[in-house]
Amino acid sequence: MEISAIIKKRLGEEIKNSGLTTVEIAKLAGVSPEMVTQYKTTNKLPKLDTFARICKNLDLDANYILGLKDF
């Protein structure tokens, strides 16, 4: 599987499993709710600073999301 597909799959799953609404995640990440929806449903990946905020605020392991390690 290509690395961007791994990132997309894992990030989308973690966003869906966070228990937060799209609006709540958007506020935490500093983006629009539409962008969060795109992260979950399209091949759109967040900018690096947005990715960092999502990982920090959702307590995600960036190495896992990036495919650098498996759980």
Alpha-carbon distance between the two ends: 16 Å
Low-confidence stretches: none
Task: Profile the largest sheet.
Answer: none
Q: What is the succession of H and E elements?
A: HHHHH
Percent of residues in helices: 55-70%
User: What characteristic shape results from the CA principal axes?
Assistant: globular
* Class inferred from helices and paired strands: mainly alpha
| Rg computed from alpha carbons, rounded to a whole number of angstroms | 11 Å
Mean pLDDT: 93
Number of strands: 0
> Beta-strand level of the residues, as a percent range?
under 5%
The total of helices stands at 5
Question: If you had to describe this structure to a student in words, what would you say it looks like?
Answer:
This protein has helices at residues 3-17, 22-29, 33-41, 48-57, 62-65. The protein is an all-alpha fold and 71 residues long.
